[in-house]
UniProtKB/TrEMBL annotation:
Domain Alginate export intervals: 38-414
Residues of the signal peptide: 1-19
Coiled-coil regions listed: none
Name used for this protein in its record: Alginate export domain-containing protein
InterPro entries per record: Alginate_export_dom, Alginate_Permeability_Chnl
This protein's UniProt keywords: Signal
UniProt cross-references to Gene3D superfamilies, sorted A to Z: 2.40.160.100
Organism: uncultured bacterium lac24B
Domain of life: Bacteria
Length: 429
């Protein structure tokens, strides 16, 4: 595998004129008559992953992945637009079997129509078709950029924007991935809908998000049950930045039903950081604590496990293992910038289960067998990540993660300590 991987990475690293910014693209805003313009975009990503313990107990596993995305946008005046993005995601075979998001030979990543209505009261937009949906902190609806195939929805989305105020309403289904060519389907077993609003809090140098989501899943899996669930989420977020400081705080409450049980779940997170812009290497110090509730009693007629639905991936570290369910995570980090184009991030995750009676969950919402017992302590994750961005259209990243699993999970669930290595290069155009 290494013999196949290194030449590809070396070839990728020899792209011309690394130090010079790219010239203005001739593929943007191409005029088509008096009112129409056509633009093209895309990206090529090469990624290598290696681990000595897939899913903390699966043994050695590695793969080399390639993702190509090419898009075209047509705008006609101020009122109508359309976007089409096709992709190809390829991967070498894994020792432990292919992951669902590893490979999709050719697919429609996005394909939608925008209808716009500019008024004195703001810009209204109706978007219909296959699209990505990313909202707020991305804790509940975010991009899936780490895996080789990004996340899309067949959805309808209406938005209104006025200055720094924004309101979104949407309903949609995720996409079921298949490995062939243009054979992905709408996943009718899941549905998500909601409202998301953002407004500035100018005196506090902050912004306020308020949201409500609905979520249906006909095949949900928890330590306590499997089956249908219908879940509602209401939440709020306050975030901002001033004088080198930044903050992002969020809380959400969930209710609904799952297999004749009442859902009562919650999550909360607090994130604060400071960037010392006057110091050498501009160090950034940050800390985050996140809590997602777990089930406290498997026989009380309730399900208390928080479900983050479609969170950004990777969520905590580049290994993308931990799901935000029945979890307490403390995450301090330090980032230094030796050069304007180079950053190095050092981070640590201390992890516990929020409830001893509930399981430890791997992404996406997979309860680990045997983990709903013993100590609540899950373990520690340590990550070093280096990112080099020589030009605005070119980025390289390497990361190392060590997962030190608790003695309790080693004993009761058979989990093992894990090393994970990532090398990645991305060219955007």
């Amino acid at each position: 595998m290494m013999k196949r991987t290194l030449p590809a990475l070396l070839l990728f690293s020899t792209l011309p004129a690394l130090a010079a910014e790219p010239a203005a693209s001739p593929w943007k805003n191409i005029p088509l008559g008096d009112a129409a313009t056509l633009s093209f975009d895309g990206s090529l990503r090469e990624r290598y992953e290696w681990t000595d313990q897939r899913d903390l107990n699966g043994g050695r596993d590695d793969t080399f992945m390639q993702r190509l995305l090419v898009g075209a946008r047509l705008d006609y005046g101020d009122y109508v637009g359309a976007y089409v993005q096709v992709g190809s995601s390829l991967a070498t075979p894994r020792d432990r079997g292919r992951k669902p998001t590893d490979e999709d030979h050719a697919y429609l990543g996005q394909g939608y129509v925008d209808m716009k209505l500019p008024t004195a009261y703001g810009l209204g937009t109706l978007r219909i078709g296959r699209q990505e949906i990313a909202l707020g902190s991305l804790h509940l609806l975010g991009t899936r950029d780490g895996p080789n195939v990004r996340r899309s929805f067949d959805a309808i989305r209406a938005s209104w924007v006025k200055d720094k105020n924004r309101l979104d309403a949407f309903i949609g289904h995720p996409i079921t991935l298949k490995t062939g060519s243009f054979d992905d389907d709408t996943d009718n077993s899941q549905k998500v809908w909601g409202l998301y609003g953002t407004t500035p809090l100018t005196p506090l140098a902050s912004s306020l998000d308020l949201y409500t989501f609905g979520f249906e899943d006909n095949d949900a899996h928890y330590a306590q049950l499997s089956g249908q669930e219908r879940r509602y989420t209401v939440g709020a977020r306050i975030f901002g930045a001033a004088q080198g400081f930044d903050w992002d705080n969020e809380a959400a409450w969930q209710f609904g039903s799952a297999e004749q049980r009442d859902i009562r779940a919650w999550s909360a997170s607090a994130h604060a950081g400071y960037t010392a812009n006057d110091w050498r290497w501009r160090p950034r110090f940050s800390g985050k604590i996140g809590i997602a509730s777990g089930d406290k009693n498997g026989h009380d007629g309730q399900l208390n496990t928080f479900n983050a639905m479609y969170p950004k991936l990777p969520y905590l570290t580049e290994n993308g293992l931990v799901a935000p369910a029945n979890l307490i995570a403390i995450h301090p980090s330090v980032t230094i910038t030796p050069w304007q184009t180079l950053s190095i991030d050092f981070s640590w995750d201390a992890l516990w289960r929020q409830r001893r009676e509930d399981a430890f969950y791997l992404g996406p919402m997979r309860p680990v067998k045997g983990s709903a017992q013993g100590s609540r302590f899950i373990g520690n994750q340590y990550q070093v990540e280096t990112t080099w961005t020589p030009r605005s259209d070119l980025q390289f990243k390497v990361a190392y993660v060590y997962f030190d699993v608790s003695n309790s999970l080693q004993h009761h669930a058979g989990l093992k300590n894990m090393n994970f290595v990532l090398a990645q290069g991305t060219y955007s155009f």
